[in-house]
Amino acid sequence: MEDDGKSSPKLPIPGKRNILITSALPYVNNVPHLGNIIGCVLSADVYARYCRLRGYNAIYICGTDEYGTATETKALEENCTPKEICDKYHAIHKEVYDWFDISFDKFGRTSTPEQTEVCQAIFKKLWDNKWLSENTMQQLYCDTCKKFLADRLVEGSCPFEGCNYDSARGDQCEKCGKLLNPTELKDPKCKVCQNTPRIRDTDHLFIELPLLKDRLEEYINETSVTGSWSQNAIQTTNAWLRDGLRQRCITRDLKWGVPVPHEKYKEKVFYVWFDAPIGYVSITSCYTSEWEKWWKNPENVELYQFMGKDNVPFHTVIVTEYLNYEDGKFSKSKGVGVFGNDVKDTNIPVEVWRYYLLTNRPEVSDTSFSWTDLQAKLNGELLNNLGNFVNRVLSFIAKPDNAGYGSVIPDAHDAESHPLTKSLAEKVEKFVAEYVEAMEKVKLKQGLKTAMLISSEGNFYLQTSQFWKLYKEDKPLCAVVIRTAAGLVHLLAQLLEPFMPSFSCEVFKQLNLPPQFSLSDERGEVLLASRPWDILPPSHRIGTPQPLFKELENDVVTQYREKFAGSQADRRARDEAANLTDQLNKTKLSDAKKQKASSSKGGGKPKPQPAADREITMARLDIRVGKIVKAEKHPKADTLYVEEIDVGGGEIRTVVSGLVKYIPLEEMQNRMVCVLCNLKPVKMRDIVSQAMVLAASSSDGSKVELVEPPESANIGERVTFPGFEGEPDDVLNPKKKVWETLLVDLNTNENLVACYKDVPFTTSAGVCKVSSISNGTIR
Questions:
Q1: What whole-number distance in Å separates Cα of residue 774 and Cα of residue 750?
Q2: Residues facing 627 on adjacent strands
Q3: What is the E.C. number (predicted)?
Q4: What gap in Å lies between CA 329 and CA 177, rounded to an integer?
Q5: How far apart are CA 758 and CA 753, in angstroms?
Q6: How far apart are CA 512 and CA 501, in angstroms?
Q7: Cα 418 to the chain's mean position, in Å?
């Protein structure tokens, strides 16, 4: 939400890091969709929150881009004035961003007197410096509408070879990204009446970009390095320069815009590409009259700008790629995708939407939104990993004295002498350092991933310590584990506040702490992460623990996919949409049974669900520690081995595996292996394979290694995944694609540990590993 205006505006402070953050000004002609939100305002919000968390002096400026053809077009569609359109959609944008917990210092507008003042002042300086020229240009004129057509009032086929996109706008092709003039389009049509316009002469003003080429190149070469621009930003900018800078028109035959302060052109307005970037400055001037201290102070102010890749030529800054929707690109103009006002109607909390969008943040290439992926991340990562850890710790502390700690943080002595706790602290210290490094470089997705690794380590720490047994057998050591885990809960809330502020506020509420978040070097808070048992003081009384996330079920996901299929116009046209909306509003997400079971029973197992109804998680796989007692080549296949594997309880399974090319026969004998035991048996060259041996392959497929449990692991014990609890299916139903769904996230990390996403394959003796393949895939 925006600064309330009652506090004094922040100004740069000598000796401090002063950071000015902006995100691309969203057009006010429609409701923002998820692609807009992640590409611009949400990413910038995360970075702004991080800067505040670290104690930097940062402001976040944004607002609606309100002038230009897009607004006039929308006004025609809705039969009202451009001003009425702007008032309507500015309020909608503000409401959507408030719901998403966007923490603007100022969210303004470009249709203000301040915008006119700054824009006209810049124009006059350009005119005085002779960087502008006058020229007659040919422009499309619609005889039916009796006016010149601005670029966005024309659509046609892209003229560039290899593209030929048939819905290219007059200013830019959405598909190939090339900038266009409307007269370059093939088969142009007036967007208002659909008739073919004709070409007429009209006088306009141009900025002479070729005169600025040397200055631009010098600025770009220096700033792209010092500012750590993304590769996409650098490549796109260099391509623009390489293709040759051309003079660009800065005026338009419109009424809705900043008037040109020149007698000859007083009936024209500035073209939106010239006017809109100036909006960052004018909105800052609405925030403080001393705006020049932010914008004309490069020695003391760092500027960070966030936008989608289609805006690179107009900014050349930090770039986010496109977020695509299911099978196609989000599009406001075509109404495709999930829109900001839609998400409030899904009953999915804001912290889930923020987390999902940020884990899918398209930083180096386009990524896609899908409902099943949202479901998997909510149920698997937020509910079973993060939510499970926090709830498990706090619920145990909240139990009465004979079963827990009566809601009071216990005192803990000699924590560093406990090897498991000391090992955890070393890992957490490393992760926090990596988090800070990633966030300083604006690698937001990496920062989030690193923070979530701490949650995974917390689950592993709890499970390995078996704190529920320690409570009965070694209470001093149990106090060490619980106070350390409570410190991790506090730390996670701090680290995740930039990403999920509502989650962090709720965690601090359950910790009985005010929602004041800080990770400052000056206060020693980063250093404190290496001693998590010291983060929360003993005798501190916590609040009331509550489950933090709720499970998203398959039938609800199906309903959402159907509800948001097609364009907005398609949705309105479907008669059943109203009934479906009513049904969705009545849908209740099921309670998070796993959280309650694990927290209330101290590690007990939740009641199993029928296999057909269960969510797809690693808990459904029966992966066991096995030992190969005999291996030989398949009698009918040169590339296959046949192994006899002891999987515990006196049971020997026959397994056929395609490892001949990669592992010598003698190295297969008496090996400890991880065996997937609940696949449906399959006949391979007349021999029935009753399980699967798990192996990792290198990225180029040239090397394959067995996933090995520790030598001291018990044969037949189940390989577990901290945070994913429950009984496995008896046999995986091939039609449900359980194995195939989970398979894509099996990997080896840089430490050679076998993982599902970031969660290690875990046994009573430690984690499972491979010999040398890091960042490999497991099959």
A1: 5
A2: 646, 672
A3: 6.1.1.10
A4: 13
A5: 10
A6: 16
A7: 37
Q: Is 7 exposed, middle or buried (0-12, 13-18, 19+ CB in 10 A)?
A: exposed
Residue ranges of alpha helices (H) inside 609-767 are 665-668, 738-743
Within a 13 Å sphere around the CA of 221, how many CA atoms are in the beta-carbon half?
A: 7
- Contact between 114 and 282 under an 8 Å Cβ cutoff? The reply is yes
Give the C-alpha separation, 406 to 751, whole Å: 40
Which are the contacts of 517, defined by CB distance < 8 A and separation ≥ 6? 53, 493, 494, 497, 504, 508
- Helices then strands (H, E): number in the chain? 27, 32
**β-pairing, 672-676 with 623-633?**
antiparallel
- 661: burial class by Cβ within 10 Å (0-12, 13-18, 19+)? exposed
Which amino acid type is present at position 233?
A: A
Report how far residue 71's alpha carbon sits from residue 689's, in angstroms, rounded to the nearest whole number.
65
For the stretch 97-140, pLDDT in tens is: 998 999 999 999 999 999 999 999 999 999 999 999 999 988 89
Query: What whole-number distance in Å separates Cα of residue 60 and Cα of residue 45?
Result: 7
Res 70: pLDDT: 78
Other beta carbons less than 10 A from residue 575's beta carbon: 6
CA distance 237 to 249: 19
Rounded to an integer, what distance in angstroms lies between the CA atom of residue 237 and that of residue 415? 54
Query: Which amino acid would we find at residue 507?
Result: V
**Radius of gyration for the alpha carbons in the chain, expressed in angstroms and rounded:** 30
Please write the tens of the pLDDT for every residue from 463-475.
Answer: 999 999 999 999 9
Q: Do the Cβ atoms of 338 and 85 come closer than 8 Å?
A: no
49 burial class (0-12, 13-18, 19+ CB within 10 angstroms)?
buried
Structural tokens at position 443: 């690698």
Q: Describe the strand order of the beta sheet including 367-369 as a list of residue ranges.
A: 328-329, 323-325, 367-369
DSSP for 50-82, written as a single string: HHHHTT-EEEEEEEEB--SHHHHHHHHHHTS-H
Beta bridge partners of 22: 61, 305
Q: pLDDT digit string (tens) for 382-411? A: 999 999 999 999 999 999 999 999 999 999
Angle (CA) 19 21 23, round 5°: 170
768 CB-near residues (< 8 Å, 6+ apart): 674, 707, 708, 709, 710, 719, 753, 754, 760, 761, 762
Contact 281, 289 (CB under 8 A): no
* Alpha carbon distance 431, 437 (integer Å): 10
Burial 187-220, CB ≥16 within 10 A → b, else e: ebbbbbeeeebeeeeeebbbbbbeeeeeebeeeb
Has residue 586 got a pLDDT over 90? no
Please give the model's pTM, rounded to 2 decimal places: 0.68
Nearest to residue 742, comparing CAs of 681, 678, 699? 678
> 14 is written with which tokens?
């000598």
- Helical (H) or strand (E) element with 295: helix 292-295
Residue 220 and residue 241 in contact, taking contact as beta carbons nearer than 8 Å: yes
- Cβ atoms within 10 Å of 35's Cβ, excluding its own: 27
403 - beta bridge partners?
A: none
The 10 Å Cβ neighbour count of residue 169 is 22
Under the banding of pLDDT at 50, 70 and 90, the label for residue 206 is very high
